[in-house]
Amino acid sequence: MQYNVIVIGSGPGGYVAAIRCAQLGMKTAIVERYSVLGGTCLNVGCIPSKALLDSSEHFHNAQEKFKTHGIELKDLKVNMAQMIKRKNEVVLDNNKGVEFLMKKNKIDVFHGHGSFINRNKVKVTADDGSTQELETDKVIIATGSKPIVPEAFNYDKKRVITSTEALNIEKVPGSMLVIGGGVIGLELGSVYARMGTEVTVVEYLDRIIPTMDSDCSRELMKSLKGLGMQFYLKHAVTSVEPTKNKVRIKAQSREDESKVLDFNVDYCLVSIGRRPYTDNLGLENVGIKTDDKGRIPVNDYLETEVPGIYAIGDVIRGSMLAHKAEEEGTFVAEKIDGQHPHIHYNLIPGVVYTWPEVAAVGYTQEELKEKGIPFKSGKFPFRALGRARASMDLDGMVKVLAHKETDEILGVHIVGARAADMIAEAVALMEFRASAEDAARMSHAHPTYTEAFREAALAATANRPIHM
Questions:
Q1: Which entry of 69, 344, 446, 467 is annotated as an active-site residue?
Q2: If we measure between CA atoms, which residue out of 308, 319, 230, 232 comes closest to residue 273?
Q3: The pLDDT value given to residue 1
Q4: Which residues contact residue 182 at a Cβ distance below 8 angstroms, ignoring those fewer than 6 apart?
Q5: Fewer CB atoms < 10 Å away: N or C end of the chain?
Q6: pLDDT tens profile 186-210
Q7: Is there a contact between 391 and 383 (Cβ–Cβ < 8 Å)?
């Protein structure tokens, strides 16, 4: 079969790229090695984890806050089987949604492992071993990523697990140790902490969510400690030994080598990052070499060293975010069509879906200092918001970083209720190079959480917040 474009991988980057190519009149096919569409994000990542995050937060609120609201319950408990069932139903509905979009846009779907025969031929190998060859003018690689699990951690998918297995634990664990204080570990760790699991986080660096602004790290850790989570920073895990019912983990202090911690827990969740997934893709058949981190090198147009072969999402440089992959999918489709799209990478927001949520866009304070860019900062606590008091969501703050001379907003960092939604306002303003004064003079409905953004902008302009 002959196509204008073949997309390998049906995650957010892949299926968005396929849809945009089809919209632009290209005969398009998508190759997915699993039986369902949607990739990691939809099946074992963003969507199912958010379903469990929401379910566990409902339980936590019922247990900790409902009585204060005047709602009294008896015999409150977690029905883990139902929680997992609902999560699976959410995933299935999204699977069906992507399937519908493929049919609507007349995109041919092939299930099987895609690999290059040459730059214009892709082989699809089905689970039963049968193969078929597809011919194409262009190829977009969107094969995503896999969790990094060192061999020494004895990953057995039973007691030593990754995020994939953590989404399907059959009953609430008594204890769990999370290796890594990044986004995935904190999100899933908080799911179980809310339901009563004793959760311990061991992080190699000196703070959690280390790529985000340090104020966000401090605020989030304070909130998660309030949830009962324990943190050991600047510690390196030296051994992970699973047994039938437990896992023994040892961690050594990076400041004092004689200090060794010894944990015995029900589960060990390994969340130290992800690696680009290019296994058996046949890159050698087209002359593409990956870099030292396993990523596929691309130019400014996301084209590989082989003309006509593009790569997007987790397999290339940059953050491993679903919405970053979506932007790149659209970008490549429009570039192939001869258009002149653009992506402002510094304005792609990052979010941690704990509660409170953490969301950020632009530069951190540490990055501005490193680059020598003069800046001013304004902060406003959620605790001072009428809306936050009404909802009992008092933890968190908004921090606005603006250029000291021009007042242009350079970064916005939010910890608090609905931060993931609030950050869109900051992205919109920064896309148009707005100043902190612009944000401060925009009317914000009262009472809302977004008033904190306005107040932080006021604090950044001339230290003039109204409600603090």
A1: 446
A2: 319
A3: 80
A4: 208, 209, 210, 211, 271, 272, 273
A5: N
A6: 999 999 999 999 999 999 999 999 9
A7: no
446 labelled catalytic: yes
CB atoms within 10 A of CB 31: 27
Look up residue 408 and give its DSSP letter: B
Which CATH number do you get for residue 242? 3.50.50.60
Residue 351 is assigned to a structural domain of this protein = no
Distance between CA atoms of 104 and 98, rounded to whole angstroms?
10
Q: Which helix (H) or strand (E) holds 399?
A: strand 397-403
Cα first-last separation, the chain: 66
Report the domain count for the chain.
3
Q: What pTM value is reported for the model?
A: 0.96
CB 55 within 8 A of CB 86: yes
Please check whether residues 164 and 75 belong to one and the same domain: no
* Confidence band, pLDDT 50/70/90 cuts, at residue 463: confident
The residue segments making up the domain with residue 442 are 356-462
> Is there a contact between 310 and 328 (Cβ–Cβ < 8 Å)?
no
Q: What digits encode the pLDDT tens for the residues 121-138? A: 999 999 999 999 999 999
Q: Of all helices (H) and strands (E), which one includes residue 299?
A: none
Give the number of residues written for the chain. 468
Cis peptide before 447 (omega within 30 of 0): yes
Residue 269 near residue 166, CB atoms below 8 Å: yes
The set of residues, in sequence order, having a beta carbon less than 8 Å from that of 50 and lying 6+ positions away, is 353
CB-CB contact of 356 with 395 (8 Å): yes
29: its two tokens = 């096919």
Both tokens assigned to 401: 């970083």
- Say whether both 176 and 187 belong to one domain: yes
Q: What is the pLDDT of residue 421?
A: 98
Residues 6+ away with beta carbon under 8 Å from 116: 122, 123, 139, 281, 282, 283, 285, 286
- Domain end among 290, 313, 345: 345
Tokens of 441: 């003079």
Question: Which amino acid, residue 454?
Answer: R
* Three-class SS state of 122: strand
> Of 439, 444, 436, which is closest to residue 462 (Cα–Cα)?
436
Instruction: Give the tens place of pLDDT for each residue, 395-435.
Output: 999 999 999 999 999 999 999 999 999 999 999 999 999 99
191 shares its domain with 241: yes
pLDDT, tens only, 319-357: 999 999 999 999 999 999 999 999 999 999 999 999 999
Structural domain includes residue 259: yes
For residue 106, give the 3-state DSSP assignment. Answer: coil
